UniProtKB/TrEMBL annotation:
It comes from Murimonas intestini. GO terms for molecular function: DNA-binding transcription factor activity; sequence-specific DNA binding. SMART domains: HTH_ARAC (SM00342). This is AraC-like DNA-binding protein. It comes from the Bacteria. Keywords: DNA-binding, Transcription, Transcription regulation. Residues 160-258 form the HTH araC/xylS-type domain. Pfam families: Cupin_2, HTH_18.
Length: 277
């Protein structure tokens, strides 16, 4: 998964990834995903879509969305509203007829700008360049997407409130009963929200968030697996390892070893191969 967990000084993150999978969530930023090859399942606003090579998904602020079954490579850009300038008011006050723009309707300027944003996505990014590229994307999106005005912003429903609450507390000890109490609903009602609208259960949803964060720490830090276990909200290594194997079909140590291998130089890979037993 990609680093949602970092603080980004320039209010934008852009990545090229082939493992985009994340459970239902929402946030105040605008998010765009351009498929470079293969396909990806996207849930946005309660509807399911599959995007293929050349397609673009646009997720506006405070829209519940999820990604699953990644089968290709994509560029993802997440940006704050302040980066969108004059287009921020449109994106925060309208709803698209569809969040997906198919390849045949996508202007080549958007493809160019998404690639340029991915290259600018490091810590040394030029903020003015990023804003200009985002404005170009927005201008072209107005030509290929149809928006409906949303005169009154609806109050957040229970599903949105639940995801926001869990997103703020999933690294802490958290139970269905506690979450239901904080949201002023019964635990049975909250449980039905997860099974009926999110097609999962409360504990599996929490574990998926924690495991995704653990995988990010394994790939991006040298912290011990025990430290990562507790930093990710798990109460024991045994629980952590069992959940990790269930979700990733591998042990945490396997992921760390594969990550180290991908970072090796060709010479290091050759030497490791020549000296393996």
């Amino acid at each position: 998964m990609i680093p949602f967990y970092e603080n980004h000084e320039h209010h934008m993150v852009s990545v090229n990834t082939c493992s985009l999978s994340f459970p239902a969530h929402l946030h105040k930023e605008t998010e765009m995903v351009l498929m470079l090859d293969g396909s990806l399942d996207v849930m946005a606003g309660g509807c399911d879509y599959r995007i293929d090579e050349g397609d673009l998904a646009v997720i506006l602020p405070n829209t519940i969305h999820a990604y699953s079954n990644p089968g290709g490579k994509c560029i993802m850009v997440v940006c704050s509203t302040e980066m969108l300038g004059e287009y921020a008011a449109l994106f925060s006050g309208a709803v698209p007829d569809s969040p997906v723009v198919r390849a045949k309707s996508l202007h080549q300027d958007i493809t160019y700008a998404m690639g340029s944003l991915e290259r600018e996505g490091g810590q040394a990014q030029n903020t003015d360049v990023c804003k200009a590229l985002l404005h170009l994307i927005c201008a072209r999106l107005l030509e290929c997407m149809t928006f409906k005005r949303q005169e009154v912003h609806p109050a957040l429903d229970l599903t949105s409130r639940a995801l926001l609450y869990i997103g703020a507390h999933y690294l802490e000890p958290l139970s269905l009963e506690q979450a239901a109490r904080e949201l002023c609903v019964s635990k049975y009602h909250l449980s039905r929200i997860f099974s009926g609208k999110l097609h999962t259960n409360f504990n599996d949803y929490i574990n998926q968030l924690r495991l995704d964060y653990a995988a990010y720490l394994i790939r991006s830090t040298q912290d011990s697996l025990t430290d990562i276990c507790y930093a990710s909200g798990f109460e024991s290594n045994r629980t952590f390892n069992r959940a990790f194997r269930k979700f990733y079909n591998a042990a945490p140590s396997d992921l760390r070893r594969r990550n180290r291998d991908t970072q090796k130089t060709p010479e290091e890979k050759y030497n490791a191969f020549m000296h393996k037993e």
